[in-house]
Amino acid sequence: MRNFFNCFIGLLLGVACTSVHAQNYPVYNSFYLNPFLYNPAEAITEYTEIYALHRQQWMSVEGAPVLSSLTFTTLLNDSRAGIGGKITSYKRGLLNTTDFSLSYAYGIPTGQKSWLFMGLSGGAISNSIDLTKITDPNDPAIANYLANNIQPAASFGMLYRTGGGLNVGISLPQLFPSTFNSDANFANTTVKPTDNVFLTIYYKRKLESQMVSRSSGSIRKKVKTEESVAPLEFYFNYKYSKFGNSQFEFLTKLNVSQNFWVGASYRLPYGFTGNLGIHTQRFVFGYSYEPGNQPQNGFSQGTHEVVLGLKLGQPKKFRRPAPVLRSTLTQPPAEKHIARFQETVDDPDQIIQDEGQASKKYYVVVRLFNEFTPADDYKQKLIKEKFNADIFYNPADKKYYVHVLETLKAAEASEEVKNLKTYTPLRQARVLIVTISK
Fold first, then answer.
1. Per-residue CA distances from 202 to 183, 251, 276, 289, 414 (Å)
2. Which pTM value belongs to this model?
3. CB pairs under 8 A, 24+ apart, for 81-86?
């Protein structure tokens, strides 16, 4: 009898492994909302983010996969590191896999608007059997299996991100392959990082806040818009599997408004998926549906996936190296024109970029004086500190303005003010706009 049950359990686990080979790593339709699901390098997030996901695959099919996961990610404020965690329950047939992992990610600035992130996760994974579906749950073969199935789990990922919205990532989601039909444990774990490889390329551009003119009744005033995401997002995924079930996936997401999106994806060789959702500054809800004709007509009543997200706390800052300041670069002597004072702007975000008009010049002013002598002394002090200091006299208010940069581009002046306030003691820097009379 014991040999019979050993054979029976071996057969069941073999079937389970065949199912796992057919879908050896969980599939997430909502990866575009929470890319940390596939890549630990995505643990660096501006807010502390918590996501809960539930996926009911192939409705009406007995033993079809059921997936639930809970994740959190956050950037460690004013650093280049982030941490994350993930708990997942993955049921299919008689087999239930539960895994837990913690992640650490680190970002390296490769330019003023580009980053390289790397992440590593580690934890444990456990496989269990639904004993209610076993004829003899007291069989020694089952007891021996259940006593030795906790194994290590680990993943590694890299992500290259540009300020223009392009992201390229690669991850190895299973550095230690799970073994389902043997007495596997920590002592005899094998390392096979390339059994599964996940490659992603996506475009998701963040639009910064701007100053725009808006009317309120008969009054027209300037207001600051909220940060948002460009209307269109594109995603391409390639999942390589040693077991021969590699997949391509294309997804397009349309942000209809700041709070609502719709999307569609196509996964080879299965078919289409529809997505929609809503989000606010703190809350995210997403839903996706796969038709019941996947992987063949009449196979099931479809697949449903729901995700809930929550953003906590205040946005955190990623520490970057101090930039090269334009005001410290040597500039050749420029032709001088008589300049007429126009206005001062304390907040660089209030500058309306008008770079096409060469009649305007933008000065980055750090201090003003009533007399020339102290203004010249301060100028000489800044020159000793390697700043390109000079003096602009405004006949309208009879003030001497010590500045460190003059440019025809409003964007350059605005960026220089922000950099001076962030990385130097010149925290009183502001922009002065003048009109040139040739």
1. 40, 9, 18, 21, 30
2. 0.69
3. 81/44, 81/105, 81/106, 81/107, 82/43, 82/44, 82/45, 82/106, 82/107, 82/119, 83/43, 84/36, 84/40, 84/42, 84/43, 84/119, 84/121, 86/36, 86/37, 86/121, 86/123
Q: What is the DSSP string of 222-255?
A: EEEPPPEE-SEEEEEEEEEETTS--EEEEEEEEE
Sign of CA dihedral 339, 344, 348, 353: negative
- What are the helix (H) ranges across 348-436? 372-384, 410-423
* pLDDT band at residue 128 under the 50/70/90 scheme: confident
User: How far, in Å, CA of 45 to CA of 316, rounded?
Assistant: 8
Instruction: Give the angle subtended at the CA of 226 by the CAs of 430 and 351, to the nearest 5°.
Output: 25
Using the CB atoms, write b or e for 111-131: b if 16+ within 10 Å.
Answer: eeeebebebbbbbebebebee
CB 209 within 8 A of CB 224: yes
In angstroms, rounded to a whole number, what is the distance separating the alpha carbons of residues 318 and 306?
Answer: 31
Q: What is the dihedral of CA 283, 239, 248, 39, to 10 degrees?
A: 30
Q: State how far the Cα of 24 lies from the Cα of 3, in Å rounded to an integer.
A: 29
pLDDT (average), residues 148-152:
75
Tens digits of residue pLDDT in 317-372: 888 776 777 887 555 444 444 444 444 444 444 444 444 444 788 999 999 999 99
Q: How far apart are CA 150 and CA 132, in angstroms?
A: 21
Which CATH number fits the domain 2-312, given the four candidates 1.10.260, 1.10.287, 2.40.160, 3.40.1800?
2.40.160
Q: For residues 223 and 15, what is the distance between their CA atoms, to the nearest angstrom? A: 62
Share the mean pLDDT of the chain. Answer: 80
How far from chain centre, in Å, is Cα 247?
23
Q: State residue 78's pLDDT score.
A: 81
Architecture of domain 326-437: 2-Layer Sandwich (3.30)
Q: Considering just the CA atoms, what is the radius of gyration of the chain in Å?
A: 30
DSSP labels for 354-376? -TT-TTEEEEEEEEEESSHHHHH
pLDDT (0 to 100) of residue 57 = 87
Q: What are phi and psi of 271, to 5 degrees?
A: 145, -155
For 290-332, write each residue's pLDDT tens digit. Answer: 887 766 676 778 899 999 999 999 988 888 776 777 887 555 4
Instruction: Reduce the DSSP state of residue 65 to 3 states and report it.
Output: coil
Tell how many helices (H) and how many strands (E) occur in the chain. 4, 23
Domain boundaries, the chain: 2-312, 326-437
